[in-house]
Amino acid sequence: MRLRFTTAGESHGKGLVTVVEGLPAGLPLGAEYVNHQLRRRMQGYGRGARMKIEQDAIEWLAGVRAGESLGSPVAMLIVNRDWANWEDVMAHEGDGEIRRRRVTRPRPGHADLVGVLKYDRLDARDILERASARETAARVAAGALARRLLEEFGVEIGSHVVSLGGIVVSAPPRLPVPLNESSDASPVRVLDPEAESEIVSRIDEAQKNGDTLGGEIEVVARGVTLGLGSHVSWDRKLDGRLAAALMSIPAMKGVEIGLGFEAARRPGSAVHDPIATQEAVQGADARAGFQRLSNNAGGLEGGMTTGEPLVVRVAMKPISTLMSPLKTVDLTSGSEASAQSERSDVTAVPAAGVIAEAMVALVLADALLEKFGGDSLEETKRNHQAYLEAVGRRWDGVRDS
Ligand code: EPS
């Protein structure tokens, strides 16, 4: 792995820390660029009161000087404003005894029960504080650095919600570019005003019933260089790396690439994307002189990027904190109980799109650095340019002969 990142932090702890290692030196970086992504993650109809408390923003801790990366690990801090309300409950020091806000009635679907059993804890708060999707703020910060690097290579990453609460969105066949300019304008990040109002009503209804809603998100990356990833070994295939990264986001239950599960239901002739020469598709964005007449593959063949837009979808289950709680067992008495209701969101599907973009950016940036290397941005760019020229020359050779 060329680009690595790790996060630390509890949902109601002092803050979240992200360390990103492997960026080349000389990448222009500003906090506002990262903060813009953090603000996007806080949006979306159906979110809970926590997002009114927080104003997520980073503080640089290391790895950046005079607006540029140094090539050393970049560390960022996101302070939890809510910490002020939790300092006693989440205090670092003490005698091991927890007196307030213990969670002893595990929520079905959350990490609570398995976590307390596996980690031998009496209070499920010791588990949920880290299992909380609050951690994804730190991922979005890391993803912003990857996105910034990819921008230098002409990559644009966006997302939109394709279903929420069982309402399927009819997105236009040609997605707008840049995608986020349109999807971010919708409170539920959809490209269909009719579906938007239906979804908003469904969220209101779920809130009234103390219920929660899941949905599906599509991430699209344009301008990705042909040949990232590899066909040669299982752990170098980009499909697998993307799926793993996306499935690691809390509450994600499935990933599709391109046509996805639908490809399994069609004959090959209705799945695979015919290849044409650049001349056959006038004005299209050709890659090394070749062009696909469709993109059912979602920009990946043989575990490598084809140069076509990368299209991945991810399915999110409904959040497991229900205000009308499900049945559970109390950990202290062992008797039947209702699951604990903590403040939470009715749905976080719109925000999940921003998180999925961040994970896709991190995987693509890793694959880009793996292919082109470079200790400085200029070196990475030189290597990238030389590769593009070589791929292009190969096509010239075919045409001349
Ligand atoms: C989240 C912060 C959390 C939740 C949510 C995501 O804040 P709090 O628990 O204080 O309300 O709103 O977490 C979950 C959905 C979960 O299952 O834990 C955030 O910053 O995104």
Describe the overall structure.
There is one protein chain. The chain is α+β, with helices and mostly antiparallel strands and 401 residues long. It has one domain: Chorismate synthase, AroC fold. It is 31% helix and 19% strand. It has helices at residues 31-42, 50-53, 112-119, 125-131, 136-151, 179-183, 193-208, 238-247, 349-372, 377-400, and strands at residues 4-8, 15-21, 58-62, 64-65, 68-69, 74-79, 156-164, 167-168, 215-222, 252-257, 275-277, 290-292, 300-301, 304-305, 310-316, 327-329, 336-338. The strands form six sheets. The protein has a five-stranded antiparallel beta sheet. Strands 1-2-6-3 form a four-stranded antiparallel beta sheet, with helices on one face. It has a two-stranded antiparallel ribbon with strand order 4-5. Strand 16 (327-329) and strand 17 (336-338) form a beta hairpin. The longest helix has 24 residues, at 349-372. It is globular, with a radius of gyration of 23 Å. 42% of the residues are buried. Ligand EPS is lined by residues 11, 48, 50, 82, 132-134, 136-137, 319, 321, 342-345, 348.
